[in-house]
Amino acid sequence: MRSNRGFTLMEMVVVIAMMGALAIGVTQFINFAMKIYLDGQQWGQAVSQHRYGLQRLSRELRDAVPGSVAIANGSAGYCLSFSPIEQSGRFIAAPMLNSANQVSFYRMSCCVGNDCDDCFSSGNGAGVALLNGYQLPDPLPTVASSQCDSSNLCQMTLSANLADGDYSPGQRFYAAGSTVAYCLNSSGQLTRSSQGSSSLMADGFANDLSQCNLNQRDNAHCPFLEQPPTLNRNSVLQLQFWLSQADQSQRFVQEVQIENLP
């Protein structure tokens, strides 16, 4: 007659040891998967929190007056400044013959009645930009008056004489708005300033501004880098911001072309 045989002590110890090792492995796998999930959530939240400010900066840069972009380091941090385009048109002569401070141009849709003063007042008197080899005078001349005739030809009188030069081959001119500046300070805050007011666009950037050198076009620490325009390429602005989450740092780079050709 056969008797029922149970587990020996050694067999139970081996089984318990194997189950413990398996439990540790499963726990580590679950912890690793949870860490990946949480890190992904943190990165997603960090990127979404900064997306608005960066999208607005990119959108405004695409509508900047060509030649108006400037990058500088000052008390507010590293700043990218530019003049937005309020209106644009095509000129006939710049300057007019024997009138160094006058420009003739085709009537624009924003003109009202016999003048186009409203086209230039929307920029709060920031000025009129006519490119001369991608160079703009500082400050821009403002429009003192404008008049149009019945044939839809107009002329504007500027506050300063235009320098002699080869102006825009496309005969384009721009009514520039008030200067806009985006600045990143050492505290990681990205602010937008215009007409004396400033607002916080994003916070928590981890750029090491002490390592920024604007003379190095491949410098990884500068938030703003510019590749000037050439005869066959638009001006390109490189935006690069560092974010730190979950004990890791990541650089986000975006290139923006200023597509308004002269």
From TrEMBL:
Keywords: Membrane, Transmembrane, Transmembrane helix. The chain crosses the membrane at residues 12-34. InterPro entries: N_methyl_site (IPR012902). It holds the Pfam family N_methyl. This is Prepilin-type N-terminal cleavage/methylation domain-containing protein.
